[in-house]
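W.,

You were right to be curious about this one. When I first looked at the sequence I had no strong expectations either way, so I just let the prediction run and decided to look at it fresh. Below is the sequence, 168 residues in total, followed by the output.
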Amino acid sequence: MAESGVNIEYETIWQIYQKEKQSNELQLVPKTLYEDVAALVNELKKQNTEDAELQLGNAQRLINAVFEKRKQKILLYVAYGKQIPPQFPKQEEELYNEVLSALKSKRLDTPQTEEQKTLIAIQKIPEIILPSGHKEGPFEKDQIINVKSRSKEDINFLINNNICREIT
C-alpha cells in the first residue's frame, strides 16, 4: 500500500490496538494517525474487490476500537487533571481541551435555596424569560408578584430593567 500514498497499513493499526489494550496510558502514535487512517480507508474503498471490502470492514472496526480506547484514556487524563503530552495528534489535543473546557464551565455546587421577594410590576409586560431560564409573566401594571427565584440575578434583572420594583 505504500506505493499508493497511504502511510499506514492494517497491520500497523492492529499493533496500535494491541498496545492500547495492554496499557492504561495513551500510547505514542504518529501525529498524522487520523489522516493516515482516512487515507487507508479511502484507498480500500477505491479497490473494488471482495477482499478489499472484507479488509475495509475489518479495518473500520479496528480503527473504531482504537479510537474508542484512546477517547476513554483522554477522558481519564481529564478526570485526573493530567495533561496529555504534546506529541499526540491535534484531534486528540482538541478533544482533551474541549472536554476540559466544558467541565470548567460547569460547577457542581449545592443547589441554592429559592429566594422569594415581593415585587410590583411597573408596567404591563408579556411573559419574559429571566437570565436563569425561568419564565415569568405576563404582568399587568401595578400587579403584585411573588417571585421565586434561584438567583438574585433574576430579581436584579426585573428591578434594573424597570420591569418591577421591590415592595419593602
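Here's what jumped out at me. The radius of gyration is 28 Å. And, maybe more interesting for your project: Confidence is low (pLDDT under 50) at residues 1-5.

Coffee later to discuss?

I.
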